[in-house]
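step: validate -> pass
step: tokenize input -> pass
step: predict -> running
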Amino acid sequence: MEKRLGDSTINANLIASSVGLSSRYINGLFADEGTSLMRYVWKRRLESCRKDMLDPVHAGHRLSDIAFRWGFNDLSHFSRAFKQQFGCSPREFRHVETRQYHQSP
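step: predict -> pass
step: emit ->
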């Protein structure tokens, strides 16, 4: 599943069939943890985007390129989801983190 995080077509049925289980069973396992399989995928995608924004290798990449790389098809959806997860917009996050990076010794 981690290898396919950037695949925007991934869904619970595809993941479940790739491991030989039903999506209902897998979602039941995730429900025991208070989430769902697709919420977990969504969270992992956001974390991957955040990591890329912190990585100097991706400093010149547009936020949209990073979001699309990790399976988000809609930039406004990505921005809302990022803000909900991390408390600030992707643009604000990148601005603050870049400034802190340049100020650190």
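step: describe -> The helical segments are 12-18, 23-32, 37-54, 63-69, 75-86, 90-103.
step: cleanup -> pass
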